[in-house]
Each structure stands twice: as C-alpha cells, then as structure tokens.
Amino acid sequence: MQNPKNLNSAVHLRSVATTRRVAVSHREVAFWNTMIGKKVVMAITGIALVGFVIGHMLGNLKIFAGPETINAYSRFLREVGMPELELRPAPLARADLPSYLRSASHHRGGPAYSHEPGCATHRLRHQTRYRDDLGARERCAGAEFSWSPSLFSIFST
Amino acid sequence: MVAFIVFHLFHLTGGLVGFGPGQFKDLAVYQNVVAAFAVWPIAVFYIIAMGALCLHLDHGIWSLLQTLGWNTARNEATLQMISRGIAVVVFLGFTSVPVAVMTGWIR
Predict the structure, then answer these.
(1) Is A43–B67 a contact, with Cβ atoms under 8 angstroms apart?
(2) Is the pTM for the entire model greater than 0.80?
(3) Which residues form the domain of A17?
(4) Which of A106, A130, B12, B24 has fewest C-beta within 10 Å?
(5) Which helix (H) or strand (E) holds A157?
(6) Chain B residues with CB-CB distance to A under 8 A?
(7) What would the mean pLDDT of A54-67 be, rounded to a whole number?
C-alpha cells in the first residue's frame, strides 16, 4: 500500500496511471491485482476442491461394498473419457508407474509390454489414434494412458 | 496438508512408499488399502491428516461463503453450521476406512 504522504509523488502518480491502463486493457489482471479479486478466485477454486474432496470420500466408501466394487470403480476412474477424447498416452504417463520407475533405473525404456502394438510407447511412436484401436485396451491393459500417473510425471521429471 | 497430499499420491496412487516390494498392485484398491493401513503409524498419520483437513474445511468453507457475500445476519449461524457439518462428515467418511481396517472390519 502507498503511504498517503506520497500521494502526489511522481512515482505514485505513474503507478496509478499504469494500474488504470492495465485495468482498462486487461480486466482479469486488474481483478487479480485486487485483494478481493484474489479472494474470489480462491473461493471459486475452493468450491471445486470441496467438491473433489466430497467425491473422493464417497468413492472411498465403496470399499465397504467389497473388493469388486471399489476395484471396478478405480478402473472406471482410470479410463473414463479417454476414447471420447481420443487421448494418446503422454510420454511419462504409465499406469504401472512404480514398475516403470524401477525398471527405468536399470534400463531406459520402461516395461517391455508398453512396446507391443497398440500399447503406450508403440502408439506414441506410430501416432495411432485411440479410436483406431480400441482392442488395444484389452491387449495391454495397464500400459494405456491414464489420468493419475500424469500427476506423477510432475514429480518424476 | 500439502505434505499429506504428496505422501498420499506416492503411497496409495503410486505404491512408491509404504509398501513392501511387489506388495502394491495397480488398480487393486481394496487389497492395497488393507495392506496400507495394516501399518498402524501410517493409519494414524492419515487420521491426523484428516483432522487437519476437517479444520481446514470448517474454516475454508465458511470463509468462501463470506468472500462471495452469501452470508447475511439471518443465515450466518446456519452457514457456519453447514461448514462445520461438511467438515465433520468428510472427516468421518475418510477416517472410517483406516478405522475399519485397524478394527478388522475390512480385511
């Protein structure tokens, strides 16, 4: 905050002019530059995260319905939306990341199955679209693109 | 909270920590959870983290309602109760899993 004594200083007047210019041309920047703007962004992201936490909790409670229910649910979360979005596997995203990391320390390239036709590395090299080869999902389940390990690629890069 | 999230992702999503070699099986959530919370310090850590999450939600939900200007003199007490209610329900829902494993309800 500016000291009120400096209100007429040249520096202050220039910064006020800059703020006005930004406020006119980039309204979202001006919004973010206010304390209330940051609070509103935090509130809205907060609503989304509260939703995530509640959904995560409801999903966890499936464990009381038995192994089949929650394991099927985990597979659903892994695969949901992928054929629809025609997702191709990201270079570091592997369903079986732990074994990939372990094998990567011995030899670069990851688990062997990911080089089989239709699987992650193969598909990446040959630029096959997911929709072209849905059978690949069955042939090499576990080597597909998946959502959760993409989080891990943040840590593993 | 951040420390817990990082640990949790390495633990029950990646199987990189807290498991013996070959113990973690990708997508076998049920078996992984039972094996994970059989280690009691880890179960206790999760429960403590959920306590922190509960306090965070209690404060955070109420604060976001204020930020968005949804509180009035009349509904203030209700909104605070809703925030606390969500926080407590989330705490109970999440902690029920490690508690169920430790008490042998889930095995």
Answers:
(1) yes
(2) no
(3) 1-33
(4) A106
(5) none
(6) 6, 9-10, 13-16, 24, 26-31, 33, 53, 57, 60-61, 63-64, 67-68, 86, 89-90, 93-94, 96-97, 100, 106
(7) 96
